[in-house]
Amino acid sequence: MANKLISEIPLPKSIANVFSARNISTAKDALSLTEFELMELLDVGLTEVRSALSQISEIVAPPYQTALSLMEQRFQNEHLGGHFPTGLKGLDAALCGGIPFGVLTELVGPAGIGKTQFCLKLSLLASLPTNYGGLDGRVIYIDVESKFSSRRLLEIGLRSFPEIFQMKEMAQEMAGRILVLRPTSLAEFTQSLEQIKVLLLQNQVKMLVIDSMAALVSGEHEQGARRQQTLSWHISFIKSLAEFSRIPVVVTNQVRSRNHDDASRYSFQVQSRDGAIETPMQYDSHLVAALGIQWAHAVTTRLVLEAKSGERFIKVAKSPISPPLAFPFHITSSGISLLSDDGKEVMGPEINAIHCQGHNEIINFGMEGLH
Amino acid sequence: MEIWRLPISASQRGKLISSGYTSLSSLSSISSSDLARELKVSESEAMNILKVASHSRGSETSNASCSIVEGAQSAWDMLHDEESLMHITTSSADLDNILGGGIHCKEVTEIGWSSLSLIVNSVLKYKLTTAFSSESIIFMLIGGVPGIGKTQLGIQIAVNVQIPNDFGGLGGKAIYIDTEGSFMVERAFQIAEACIEDMSEYNRFLRKDFQECKIKMLPQDILENIFYFRICSYTEQIALINYLDKFLSEHKDVKVIVVDSVTFHFRQDFDDMALRTRVLSGMALKLMNLAKRFSLAVVLLNQVTTKHTEASFQLALALGDSWSHTCTNRIVLYWNGNERYAYIDKSPSLRSASAAYSVTARGIRNSSSSCKRIKMM
Amino acid sequence: MARLANLETEYPVLDSTVRNFCASHGIFSVEDFLIHDLYMLAAFAEQNDSSERLKEGIAQVLSIIDDMHQPWLNGMELLEDAKRNKHVFPTGIQGIDLLLGDGIHVGQLTELVGPSSSGKTQVCLRTASNVARNHMVLYLDTGNSFSPQRIAYFLGKTISPSSAQAKNQFLQKVMSNISCHSVFDIFAMFDVLHQLESYLRCQDGRGGCQMRLLIVDSISSLISPVLGSSSTLGVINSKLMDTGRALMTSAGYLLKKLAHQHNLAVLIINHTVGGEGGSSKPALGDSWKCIPHSRLFLSCDRGSNTYNVSILRHPSMASGKAARFVI
């Protein structure tokens, strides 16, 4: 609507002519100027400018929906009430049914913790027919680091849904529904996003997985403000993709170590007003998510995968629905599964900390388990 | 030259000046037909000029009365108006307290927010003295600053504004302007449910007789009264705020506008920073105007970003200095230990104070009372 | 300035002959007369058929001009006026009053500059509540930041504990003296100021409680939308900037005129914006800088809740002096 032509808006003839004479052809052009600038530019009085602006605005402004109609519409049009079950019962309960449609869900954690495993499982689930709890549609899997393994995918399928995957043609069809893209640069990724948009419009794709966003961005050697800018474009594009096609979007994010300096000086606590610094919580780990604050604002649900004293946990670090809960999990040949469906509530900012203790042993163990 | 002060077009102004009309008084006694002849403009145009001029001059007669300027209100009257203003509760008594609410009736405590409140997330004015590479900036912000509960507070306010008058609420409707797509209708439903439960409990508490006063409100009714606008570009945002004028005169019972988040679209696709500043300040003035005219609360949610200064980085509110002037009240949300805190950073009438709050399954609540969180499902 | 055509009823000498002659020289108003070379005009008048009438007319206009300008005042008279009318209003904040001698001066524009939440509005509210005890105050509010509660609080602190009723009466008396008007664009401000001007003209003849303080909180949020930037609009832009500037100067001129002629103290607020290199600078730039008589810079000490004020410019004080205060 922002690029609506002014000539299509029923303004009084005289004013419309002035707008076109001054080369202000779209609503965006007109609304980007202040009233005073328009007065001078169009050479008309304030009252005329105001009435023209209010007419343009009325047409450009999006229509409203009541929250009720929004909810009814979601329940009508969407399978499962707008939540896609992950198959992890405790997590699904906490998230009100699963991963929400239409918004971004982020998985963040150290290397080898199981992010990709989780993604594989989710894409497999989404491709299943609806009577098996799937979305019965295609999945686009953007695999930046070439970690996608179809062998592993089929293995998970065979172990979790033997009745489908034992039939060869079914297994082939399910696996065929997962489209893997391997962009090598951010530019290529941008291009493939455009293609994805077309696919989404045809309404065949039911889920989008990006593994991993951080690898894409950090592959580019751009610094500071420039990097933030490109990132912000991608953020808003992916968000709009998710929103307009109303599909779940899962994005993984890596971690990187934080300097000792930052860790002690930077505790995410506000400096109290009387000058004294609150005793910062000293985290035993020095890991932070690789994409910064702007990204963190953009994701609606953030799941942190971490290892702590030999155990792996999945934590709901940011969610509009769930309280901050932590679930122990492990990775078996049938994929990721929870050890307990009762989440432990985590107090305070600890929920955001990413631990990686005793993690190596688990990885080795896990790898053995796979082969 | 007084003529400069008239809101008329440049060419009309030029004509007036070149034919010698430079003061407002020179336009006071002339007829529109004479003016039209002299300026060589159409009579309707001349009439228009005279109308604008006489409006600007003000009616001299009315000044004999006691008010200095038409439309001005004395502070005494305003004090009374303000005291009779209804408040919107945040559902956290501690939070309400620092926001100037006084009346405590169980959970339903009230605060006044007749003016523009900017609720921002987090670690304001956090200054690092050493030089940072831009890489490290991205990391130091992880840790919960996003996810402190801005959107939750926004939804809570949109629900609480509808608490009926009998329960000390406003019984109004809410407009929710979503620029980021972060509004969760399921969450709004949960909060609405909890809000109704609280009200019926309050009802029992108030009337101890056996008469069961069932609340006739349903969560659906509450959702029905939240007008949700989804904004996809800054142009739409400006347009919507222009259009709200008309929308509000048709929906007079709207008592709160929540914008989540106000600066999202302005942080991208804007090359000319000076223009951005002007457009934003124009928008802020329009919002102020709406708040005043329709006596409603405007709650803006803002994000925290990093700011590059010469040798240091600091966390700052998105959109910087000139924008920070525009809000009347500013509340900063941050972590303190294991608790979420809200701090009043700027307000003409409230003293600086902070209070702990928590985000529960039922919405925003007091920190202490909320220890026992109800686990979902 | 008056148009010649409007003057005929009062001065019959300025009839159509004279006016036509003037018009042929591009003179329509008394103002145009001033910028014309009078000798040339007189010479042209000589050549005209009705030279006598024309000369009479010119002389008449000159005498009108003589009447119109403000009377000449010598230093003694100015001093007299200053002693009689140009008082100093204490702001009620000790730190600022000490710094400025006694407070803000009547007849002058005092500007407060500072970053967001540096106490600018608080100083204004405090000053308003202090002056309103004996005089009327007009508060122009652009940001809904006028807080009657805060004023009541300030007033409540200053009176000794007495009966609730007496206190209420006092509050009512003082607070009725403060009027607040919201303005959201610069043209609305001009409307209000014009109305104020005609009110003040009537007031000067009357006795009773007089309006003595005008506060504009804040002037920069009204003016900055009309100041164009240098890159957006290309060719048209320079014209736009001129108009914006003209409005700004006009606003400054009008405020100063009100202050001087009607013995008002005017207190205005200017914001700061981020300048180059991360430092902040006043929002209204160099061309506004010379308009206010005195300019105070406010800042807030986050830790201790005290505010700093320093003089950037003052007609009778060295700049750079600073003080601290608490509100």
UniProtKB/TrEMBL annotation, chain A:
<protein>
    <recommendedName>
        <fullName>RecA family profile 1 domain-containing protein</fullName>
    </recommendedName>
</protein>
<keyword id="KW-0547">Nucleotide-binding</keyword>
<dbReference type="GO" id="GO:0005657">
    <property type="term" value="C:replication fork"/>
</dbReference>
<dbReference type="GO" id="GO:0003697">
    <property type="term" value="F:single-stranded DNA binding"/>
</dbReference>
<dbReference type="GO" id="GO:0140664">
    <property type="term" value="F:ATP-dependent DNA damage sensor activity"/>
</dbReference>
<feature type="domain" description="RecA family profile 1">
    <location>
        <begin position="80"/>
        <end position="255"/>
    </location>
</feature>
<keyword id="KW-0238">DNA-binding</keyword>
<dbReference type="GO" id="GO:0003690">
    <property type="term" value="F:double-stranded DNA binding"/>
</dbReference>
<dbReference type="Pfam" id="PF08423">
    <property type="entry name" value="Rad51"/>
</dbReference>
<dbReference type="InterPro" id="IPR030548">
    <property type="entry name" value="RAD51B"/>
</dbReference>
<keyword id="KW-0539">Nucleus</keyword>
<dbReference type="Pfam" id="PF26169">
    <property type="entry name" value="HHH_XRCC3_RpoA"/>
</dbReference>
<comment type="similarity">
    <text>Belongs to the RecA family. RAD51 subfamily.</text>
</comment>
<keyword id="KW-0233">DNA recombination</keyword>
<dbReference type="InterPro" id="IPR003593">
    <property type="entry name" value="AAA+_ATPase"/>
</dbReference>
UniProtKB/TrEMBL annotation, chain B:
<keyword id="KW-0238">DNA-binding</keyword>
<keyword id="KW-0234">DNA repair</keyword>
<dbReference type="GO" id="GO:0005657">
    <property type="term" value="C:replication fork"/>
</dbReference>
<keyword id="KW-0067">ATP-binding</keyword>
<keyword id="KW-0233">DNA recombination</keyword>
<dbReference type="InterPro" id="IPR013632">
    <property type="entry name" value="Rad51_C"/>
</dbReference>
<dbReference type="GO" id="GO:0008821">
    <property type="term" value="F:crossover junction DNA endonuclease activity"/>
</dbReference>
<dbReference type="InterPro" id="IPR052093">
    <property type="entry name" value="HR_Repair_Mediator"/>
</dbReference>
<dbReference type="GO" id="GO:0140664">
    <property type="term" value="F:ATP-dependent DNA damage sensor activity"/>
</dbReference>
<comment type="function">
    <text>Involved in the homologous recombination repair (HRR) pathway of double-stranded DNA breaks arising during DNA replication or induced by DNA-damaging agents.</text>
</comment>
<dbReference type="Pfam" id="PF08423">
    <property type="entry name" value="Rad51"/>
</dbReference>
<dbReference type="GO" id="GO:0033065">
    <property type="term" value="C:Rad51C-XRCC3 complex"/>
</dbReference>
<keyword id="KW-0539">Nucleus</keyword>
<dbReference type="GO" id="GO:0005524">
    <property type="term" value="F:ATP binding"/>
</dbReference>
<dbReference type="GO" id="GO:0033063">
    <property type="term" value="C:Rad51B-Rad51C-Rad51D-XRCC2 complex"/>
</dbReference>
UniProtKB/TrEMBL annotation, chain C:
<keyword id="KW-0539">Nucleus</keyword>
<comment type="similarity">
    <text>Belongs to the RecA family. RAD51 subfamily.</text>
</comment>
<dbReference type="GO" id="GO:0007131">
    <property type="term" value="P:reciprocal meiotic recombination"/>
</dbReference>
<dbReference type="GO" id="GO:0140664">
    <property type="term" value="F:ATP-dependent DNA damage sensor activity"/>
</dbReference>
<dbReference type="GO" id="GO:0005524">
    <property type="term" value="F:ATP binding"/>
</dbReference>
<dbReference type="InterPro" id="IPR027417">
    <property type="entry name" value="P-loop_NTPase"/>
</dbReference>
<dbReference type="InterPro" id="IPR047323">
    <property type="entry name" value="Rad51D_C"/>
</dbReference>
<dbReference type="GO" id="GO:0042148">
    <property type="term" value="P:DNA strand invasion"/>
</dbReference>
<dbReference type="InterPro" id="IPR051988">
    <property type="entry name" value="HRR_RAD51_Paralog"/>
</dbReference>
<dbReference type="GO" id="GO:0000400">
    <property type="term" value="F:four-way junction DNA binding"/>
</dbReference>
<dbReference type="GO" id="GO:0005657">
    <property type="term" value="C:replication fork"/>
</dbReference>
<dbReference type="InterPro" id="IPR020588">
    <property type="entry name" value="RecA_ATP-bd"/>
</dbReference>
<dbReference type="Pfam" id="PF08423">
    <property type="entry name" value="Rad51"/>
</dbReference>
<comment type="function">
    <text>Involved in the homologous recombination repair (HRR) pathway of double-stranded DNA breaks arising during DNA replication or induced by DNA-damaging agents.</text>
</comment>
<keyword id="KW-0067">ATP-binding</keyword>
